[in-house]
Amino acid sequence: MPLLRQQKGFKDEIVLASVGSRDVLVLSLWESSEDADAYHDSAHKDALTLLDNMIETNPRVGTPDVLHTTLYESHATVSGI
């Protein structure tokens, strides 16, 4: 989280997991898709290096559609890891 908070345009993060499952979905909210892309192309690789011993498979990066949220009213871009 400290690394994410330092990134330009980072707004918030949501981590979703099911009880009894090892799968975790991390959604990072950004001011714009450009900010999310800039993070993915630079600091994201550093974060994966730091977490290398804890990650069992290669993370998949995508951009999901947000169907509904009650977090706050925003036009933030959501980047899923």
Structure description:
The protein is α+β, with helices and mostly antiparallel strands and 81 residues long. It has one domain (2-80). The chain is 26% helix and 23% strand. It has helices spanning 2-5, 33-41, 43-50, and strands spanning 10-17, 24-30, 77-80. The longest helix has 9 residues, at 33-41. The model has no long low-confidence stretch (mean pLDDT 75).
Keywords, please?
single chain; 81 residues; 3 strands; alpha+beta; 3-stranded antiparallel β-sheet
Task: Report helical residue fraction.
Answer: 25-40%
What's the total count of β strands?
3
Give the C-alpha Rg.
Answer: 13 Å
What is the percentage of strand-forming residues? 15-25%
Average pLDDT, rounded to a whole number, is: 75
Shape: globular
Q: Report, as a whole number of angstroms, the end-to-end distance.
A: 14 Å
Main sheet specs: 3 strands, antiparallel
How many distinct folded domains?
A: 1
What order do the SSEs take from the amino end to the carboxyl end, as H and E? HEEHHE
Low-confidence stretches: none
Note the total helix count. Answer: 3
The quaternary state of the protein chains shown equals single chain
